[in-house]
Specification:
Blueprint (H helix, E strand, L loop, with lengths): L10 E3 L8 H7 L9 H18 L5 E5 L3 H12 L5 E6 L2 H12 L3 E6 L8 H10 L3 E7 L1 E2 L4 E2 L2 H10 L3 E5 L11 H4 L3 E3 L13 E5 L1 H8 L12 H8 L13 H17 L1 H21 L3 E2 L10 E5 L6 H12 L1 E5 L8 E5 L7 H15 L1
Helix pairs in contact: 1-10, 2-10, 11-13, 12-13
The protein binds pyridoxal-5'-phosphate.
């Protein structure tokens, strides 16, 4: 007979998911109610307001897609890209490549701006390509590249998109809650994020937001949105607000209790305080790693505090070391991805996994295991 599953106790310091706070776990254990129950709908409205706070936006179309970050990504592209549309896609790691896939699958033409993995998106290269075309529909880029630990200049890139009359589509899966992100001030038109990184809610939900400009583009589409589930017009019947809610899909009720609690915790801490906490513990981790003789893999000016890429020293057996951390300390750190596989570790300090205790545990475990 198969028995109940009890996961081992872990400390999550990889690229996500991060440790889910006990308050969030206990919120998720509350009784399931109907997804059209007035009490649940009241909670949905609160989630929307809390997301607007976390994203710094007044966009009415701000909601959590009932599926992971990849679905939020697809929601942005499937609604905004039409066949033949030229979209500038910046790639400096794994996730820019997925944006390209999305553009092409929806019939768009991806004009690629490539930068080396471990460096930021070059604003100059983007400007150059914008100057060469007068019919660009959108600029898409990843704010915080989780595959490398690099932060790109979202503010400057979105300003460029505005200057050249195109929309901006931003991947903020790893940035939301960990570093400065200001949807309205920066003029972001479409953004998707994830719940399992710096929000420390359970994985499987993707906050998205669309600006007025993005909604105009969607309303002027010549072709039908080629996805039923992610068509924003249909989702809005359920999430749109007002007394009348139409059934669209059965929301992940308990997971949304968890997201609500995680967002309440962020609100209680304060958004800027959360950014400062990430910066503070990042500095402590960096100092400890460097004191141990390890080197950060990303230049200081574009380093993400919540995702620390560390160069694996010569002669270290990477899978063996990570296994030892897991077995001896219950500690998960991330492996390198793609071209960085075997070259770096990715140490996450995200949300509830960004505390002094996490920094001390990680340094102690690494030091003892590297000996
Ligand atoms: N974009 C970035 C930058 C990510 O880090 C991730 C996940 O790690 C995704 C998109 C995809 O999110 P999910 O795994 O929730 O589908």
């Amino acid at each position: 007979m198969i028995k109940s599953f009890h996961p081992p106790l872990r400390t999550l310091m990889g690229p996500g998911p991060s440790d889910v706070h006990p308050r969030v776990l206990s919120a998720m254990a509350r009784p399931t109610i109907g997804h059209l129950d007035p009490a649940f709908i009241g909670m949905m409205d609160e989630i929307k307001h809390l997301l607007q706070y976390a994203l710094r936006t007044e966009n009415p179309l701000t909601l959590p897609v009932s599926a992971p970050g990849s679905a939020g990504m697809e929601a942005c592209f499937v609604n905004l890209v039409e066949p033949g549309d030229k979209i500038i896609v910046c790639q400096n790691g794994v996730f820019g490549g997925r944006m390209k896939e999305n553009v092409e699958r929806f019939g768009g033409v991806a004009l690629m701006v490539e930068d080396a993995w471990g460096t930021a998106v070059s604003v100059d290269k983007v400007r150059h390509i914008m100057q060469q075309h007068d019919d660009i529909k959108a600029l898409a880029f990843v704010h915080a590249e989780t595959s490398t630990g690099v932060c790109s200049d979202a503010r400057a890139l979105c300003r460029l998109a505005r200057d050249y009359g195109c929309l901006s589509i931003v991947d903020a899966v790893t940035s939301l809650g960990g570093i400065e992100l200001d949807v309205d001030q920066w003029g972001i038109d479409a953004l998707y994020s994830g719940t399992q990184k710096c929000l420390s809610a359970p994985p499987g939900i993707s906050p998205v937001t669309f600006s007025e400009r993005a909604l105009i583009k969607i309303s002027q589409r010549q072709t039908r949105v080629p996805s039923w589930f992610l068509d924003k017009n249909l989702v809005m019947g359920y999430w749109g607000g007002g007394a009348k809610r139409a059934y669209h899909h059965t929301a992940p009720v308990n997971a949304l209790y968890g997201l609500h609690e995680a967002l309440v915790m962020l609100q209680d801490e304060g958004l800027e305080q959360a950014w400062q906490r990430h910066a503070l513990h990042h500095r402590a981790l960096r100092d400890g790693l460097e004191a141990m003789g390890l080197q950060m893999a990303v230049a200081a000016d574009v380093r993400l505090p919540q995702l620390n890429s560390v160069t694996i020293p010569e002669g270290i057996d990477d899978p063996r070391l990570r296994n030892a951390l897991l077995e001896r300390y219950g500690l998960e750190i991330g492996a390198g991805l793609g071209v960085l596989a075997g070259k770096v570790w990715r140490i996450g300090l995200m949300g509830s996994s960004c505390t002094q205790r996490h920094v001390m545990l990680c340094l102690d475990a690494l030091e003892n295991t590297l000996l």
